């Protein structure tokens, strides 16, 4: 299976980068064809410009500035997000990826006023997230990233398929042991993906 792995952490020596590398390695070990998309390393421009917005519904012209990313998404049969959660949301670069790449004609189409998915070719979805907040604080805040992954992205891909959701909460107070345990959890989950 061809798996697109989206990563959005700017620091090369970070725990987030270690999670990304482990995800890539474990997916490859499981026999998948892995497309690692490190948005910072690729200098992805997350800004939805005036031009982008004006041409937003004009498929396929709306894809011209992000054509390579659209092609990668269209080839994917699996999708894995590896990202930190900042202020109960995705980093701007990942949010910008969704705004600029998941376009009408690419990820959805409006048919008689209803949204129809164009991502049914993606059969598996997973997320590997790190939060500064505790699970309780994330719950009280409504945990928007978890809802986006398990509800919004899942519905756009295939609503009845299970989602692998892995989160290391309370990174502000984590220990070396908790980081090692979570890295092992990611390794095992991605080798079974």
TrEMBL record:
Presence of keyword Oxidoreductase: yes
Domain Flavodoxin-like fold: residue ranges: 1-137
GO cellular component, one term: cytosol
SUPFAM superfamilies: Flavoproteins (SSF52218)
Single GO term (MF): NAD(P)H dehydrogenase (quinone) activity
Pfam families noted in UniProt: Flavodoxin_2 (PF02525)
Sorted UniProt keywords: Oxidoreductase
Keyword Protein transport: no
Family to which the UniProt record says this protein belongs: Belongs to the NAD(P)H dehydrogenase (quinone) family.
Protein name (database record): Putative NADPH-quinone reductase
Native source species: Rhizobium aethiopicum
């Amino acid at each position: 299976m061809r798996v697109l792995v989206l990563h959005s952490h700017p620091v090369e020596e970070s725990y987030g980068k270690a999670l990304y590398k482990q995800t890539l390695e474990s997916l490859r070990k499981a026999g998948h064809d892995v497309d690692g998309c490190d948005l910072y390393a690729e200098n992805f421009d997350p800004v939805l410009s005036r031009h982008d917005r004006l041409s937003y519904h004009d498929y396929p012209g709306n894809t011209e500035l992000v054509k390579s990313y659209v092609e990668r998404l269209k080839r994917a049969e699996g999708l894995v997000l590896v990202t930190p959660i900042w202020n109960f949301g995705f980093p701007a670069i990942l949010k910008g990826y969704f705004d600029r790449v998941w376009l009408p004609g690419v990820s959805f189409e409006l048919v008689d006023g209803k949204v129809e998915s164009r991502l049914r070719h993606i059969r598996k979805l997973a997320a590997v997230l790190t939060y500064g907040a505790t699970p309780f604080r994330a719950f009280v805040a409504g945990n928007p990233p978890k809802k986006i992954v398990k509800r919004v992205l899942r519905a756009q891909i295939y609503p009845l398929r299970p989602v692998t959701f892995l989160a290391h909460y309370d990174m502000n107070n984590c220990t070396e042991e908790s980081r090692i345990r979570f890295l092992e959890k990611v390794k095992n989950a991605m080798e079974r993906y």
